[in-house]
Amino acid sequence: MKAPSSQRSSELDQDFVNGVLVRHDGRPGALLAILQEIQQNNPRKYLPRETLSYIAERANIPLSRVYSVVTFYALFNLEPQGRHTVCVCRGTACHTRGSRDLLDNLVMNLGLKSGEEGERDQLGLTTPDGNLTVRTVACFGQCALAPVVEVDHVIFGHMNEQRMQREMKTLEKREQQS
Amino acid sequence: MTRIRDLSTFNAVRTTGLGKLRPHHVRIAVGMGTCGTGNGAEAVYSAFADAIFQRGLDATLVSTGCFGFCAEEPLVNLYSPGQPLVILHRVRSEQVNQILDGLLEKNIPEALALCKIEQWDHITAQIDYGAGYPMVPLWNEVPFFQNQKKIVLRNCGIINPDDIEEYIAVGGYQSLYKVLIDRMPELVLEQLKASKLRGRGGAGFSTGMKLEFLFKSNAAQKYLICNADEGDPGAYMNRNEIEGDPHSLLEGMAIGGYITGATKGIIYVRAEYPLAVNRLNKAIAQAREYGLLGQDILGRGFDFDIELVEGAGAFVCGEETALIASLEGRAGRPRPRPPFPAEKGLWGCPTDINNVETWYNLAPIVARGPAWFTETGSTTSAGTKVISLVGKVRNTGLVEMPLGTPLSQYVYDAGGGAADGHSIKAVQTGGPSGGCIPHDLFDTPVDYESLAKLGSIMGSGGMVVMDDDNCMVDVARYFVEFTRSESCGKCTPCRVGLDKALRTLTRITKGEGREEDLVELEELGRMIRDTSLCGLGQSAPNPVLTALRHFRHEFEDHIRAKRCHAGVCLELALSPCENSCPLHMNIPRFLQLYKEGRLADAFESVIMDNPLPASTGRVCQHPCDNRCRRQGIDESVNMREVHRVIADAVLLSDQFEEAVGRVLAKKRKATGKKVAVVGAGPTGLTAAFYLALLGHEVMVFEAHADAGGMLRYALPEYRLPNSVLDREIEIIRRLGVKFTFNTAIGEDITLNDLGSQYNAVFLSIGTWKESQLYLPGNELAGVFVALPFLEAEAKAEPMQLGNHVVVIGGGNAAIDCARTVVRRGSAATVIYRRDRGDMPAIPEEVDAAEKEGVRFRFLATPHRIIGERGGVKAIEVTKTRLGEFDTSGRRRPVATGEVQVVSCTNVILAVGEDVDRDFYRSAGLTITESGMLQVDRYSLESSRENFYAGGDLITGASNVSNAMSYGKDAARNIDARLTGDSHFDGLIPTFQYDQTAPAEPSKSPRHHAHDLPVAIRAKSFEEATTALKPEEAFEEACRCLRCDIRDSAHFAVSHR
Amino acid sequence: MSEQITMRIDGQVCTAKEGQTIIEVAQANGRYIPSLCHMPGLSADGCCRLCLVEVTGLNRLLPACTTPVRNGMSVVTDSERLNQNRLMALELLFSERNHICAVCVSNGHCELQGLAQQLGLTHIHFTYNYPKLPVDVSHPRFVLDHNRCILCARCVRVCDEVEGAHVWDIAGRGINSMLVSDLQRPWGESQSCTSCGKCVQVCPTGALVEKGHAVEEMTKRNAVVTQLAIKRGTHP
Questions:
Q1: Structurally, what CATH architecture does the domain formed by C101-232 represent?
Q2: B392, B418 contact by CB (below 8 A)
Q3: Chain B 790-819, residues with CB within 8 Å of chain A CB atoms
Q4: Which of B909, B1022, C103, C196 has the most Cβ atoms closer than 10 angstroms to its Cβ?
Q5: Residue A53 sits at the chain C interface (C-beta within 8 Å)
Q6: Topology of domain C4-78, per CATH?
């Protein structure tokens, strides 16, 4: 196996990765924690393949197992994420209070291709301009406020179509200003 | 750094903590759990901080977890020395100054005060706050908290979760200390077994026994794991527990470590719960600092430490072997057991895995003993369970009640029942592994065994309430969609079987279901349950199997009738209004045609959907109003009034002949088949209209002298003028329908006669028999029954009335009687045993009656009628109060014993109508258990071949549009039977009209019909409500959001 | 030494050693229990669910490949209930991906096909999923055809446990699970593959095959792999 060279990757911060690997060595759940931390450190919140190769090599874990873990857990991304994230809760309480309509309308209004039938609970769609990612979560545990939507990590309870549109406009403005 | 090594240090810390909890100055605690911050608690907190700083107040400001009533967040606790702890609800930052102003004068803003706590039982300690504020209810006097017993949630929302000293102040870590001093792990294990504590994560295995397995293992390394990967959608108690009281978890695990010999604990927590992770990290650091975790705990030579691991979003990791795989750095795929984790767990070492809530019960059991613990709960399930009560109830939040508490107490008492205008259908327990329990089984106790008997499970304690707006097929599909996408994919039945089940359920929700699908789903479900590798697959079919068991008719409606009554399955409905209309009128179409100025087309659209458009335009119960999506913007579109305008504009004008011509042109050529319709009420007239159009020869038999049934004989002239009804009946006559009046079935003609003379018979006799209400004195002259009273009025042979008439009842008939009485110049009082909101009458009618001077006495039930010289002198009524909720979701009136006398001259009994069953029985027709005529749900055929029935006869007293829908369906089915073909849909006209949705909702608010001034209408039988003006009707039509055009959904607001 | 125990399989009294699994004892005593994922010499996975058996006194069905025998245990390997479940499991496998036997190199030598014939599967009640799946021909000697894969994970185990290369793993989850080599790179570009071909030999269907075979020509020699595994002692 070729040694991963630092020239090859602009996104791979080897020192950071090495630090993370040392810190978690031997701990329970180490691989998950390592991947989470490294993804969090990535500006586009994803795990590029070269990063995965590097982790596998340094931690002496088979490549296919790393890939298996990354594709098994919903939190890991193999693709770059949008600068903003809207996360629609698909928990039961939210479902009974209309979260599917909210999600479908949001996806449609953004011109994204909605997931195939049955794929809606594993959604992760990013607009072509990389501005916004729409995700779903199984449940935020905010059921008393259903339906719940998280916009850039801020929870909005009792969401409806109008509020959603308002929040989208706010995001747009924020994006234009920056 | 205060490392605790002896009792005196421990007690010193405790005293410091107590001083923080009950300081010598004001203490303000803002509920900052995730539910609080989601409701704006952060703004409230900083407003308090600013205000305290600006005023230079001597006050402590802290944040706490949630006290459980999540819907009322932000909750704020106020404490001033010597006074009770007051909990304020729905606090907004603007109110902060007002609160502080009041507080300094020991004045509590009453509107904001939810409840107070004078003394709190932390189980491990009691804290007295003080008495006072008489106007504020005690916490357990608030219905939401009334039956709660907080063992697990003992500290949540009261102590500051970030301060270990406050936890120690309320008796925290005392149980751990006791266990370490006693040095008798076996004894503690015995106590745990005796306490009958069972795992709170799902299966309910004895916690004591589980820990004993680990204790008995000689392995050098053992692990304790807390499963805080709470992934059940709809359950969030673990999040609240950790956010509100993280140390209880640490203490429980440390006790577990000591009694099993494990030195290492791991908490596996969802990464989606950042606040819980944060608070746990802080708590672990503090516990280490105080010598309560780590080496030589409390100076007693015991080593135990806890690590936090964040999950990465996989529901299956709630399964213990998957969780272990995940901790070992692999994908969370379960492995078969045996070996069980207690033998071979994490890295091959013996491991015990328990749910968060289980650990929370350890310290209380150690502190108070097993006998105390078993006092609460049922015989097999001791203690309490925290339930997250969410979905379609008024009060949502966390409810901790003893195990064995019936479901109704959760849904109705704590939850407060359904929102206005809705009724509760079912409750879903146990999330994707559980099932739906219908409301008629709400007396089921919530414990492991009882829920399992119904095919559901307790699970982690999620309880999602569903109302009539929720479709059970959709709910079943939703859960399978969830488990299918969370299936790890390792074993065949779960991976492929759930995918197949989802495909079948999706087909059904799209109206493409097949009759054999249901049996196939059951077989597949059983196979997945019996053969899957882990708990996820084994329980994943439960939502489908329970839905099929308790709500099979909803599946059949989707498959056979292609209907989703809840209006959820969009493919089966044109629009929410069309779906809610019993006659399934194409409402968006007639609104649009009217908007385009095409009156004749609009009328044709209306009458071909609904043969009595002017009558229903006046008296329909308008269920469409409750489903209109425009409600999300302002108010629903006034659809009923627009179709009244359309109907009146044609029926009562010179356009009548042209309109009749257009209807007659649709009549099919004669089939030579003869159909008898029994009863000329709305149901019979509807059936006759369509049967005649379909080319059959129709004879209607009617006991009265004229057609119209209840519309003519029960509805007073001021609500529905006979001239309007006559026009509608004229169209039916001109279609060729013949009538035989003054002919009562069973008396003048028998069913056998009809059977021999006609190819098919449709029975549509309404409910003309009065329900029996036994009331002493009802034989007196001057006591009338509603229907005969109204009928006499309609026939212009009115009954004699005195100056004050009491009407008993709360339905439309009662209101009609009272308003008639007023018009006859007498005073009228309506007496109803429940409260105003529970009246079945149309609310607009009740309001109109009140304006006309009708008086109402709610919560009173008649006791006896007092006579004088053969007439009525007064009526005695017993006051009632509202008791438990009944199966209709309304509170049952309970007599209080307080009797009042209302003097009056007449009493009218309007307590409901009934079917006259006797002659059906004698005619050999089967009657259902509830006393209705039995028919096939879809074909409407009775137990006798070619005899169909519909309307009130099979449903009990209902409303006009509902009754008419049976006439429509019967005509379709009878025609199909007689001709062997389906012609019905060919009758429905098609129109070309604009199919673009409005870009923006029109600005106009809802237009209401105009009531005649009270002074005029209360004295006359003239129609009391006049129609909208044409321009108003036009604006109303423009308000429609056109949900029938599917891509218009972009501003259509989702249902509540 | 492990203790000798006595048990019954379908009424027949069998002796066994403690620690053996039901399927091992059954095989030693000439009782056949259907299975697709189990293979002597590899660790047991318990994923195909075809080897489920009834154990007297237990309501739950247990996988014969992972359940250890106990003294006095009485096992039923063939019953109406078991047969129904096995047929349905096969139906699910057949309709999950694209098993078109007539054009498959393993036709006639396929364990899935053989089991279907043996259990009398004549008709698939479920609608076929017909997924669009790739065929990886990048390896010079072998082919991976996802259309034929039943996710039994024998290849994953043999590569990890016997060859020690861990080229294969299962990516994704649920119905979207897929066999992957390395970071889902073409097999031919795999840096960890030793091209030993063990995965091909243990594959029960035509998912992993050697190049250059026509329809019906591909036969597998998994017994060789079992012997090797036992010789190397990679599995007890």
A1: 2-Layer Sandwich (3.30)
A2: yes
A3: none
A4: B909
A5: yes
A6: Ubiquitin-like (UB roll) (3.10.20)
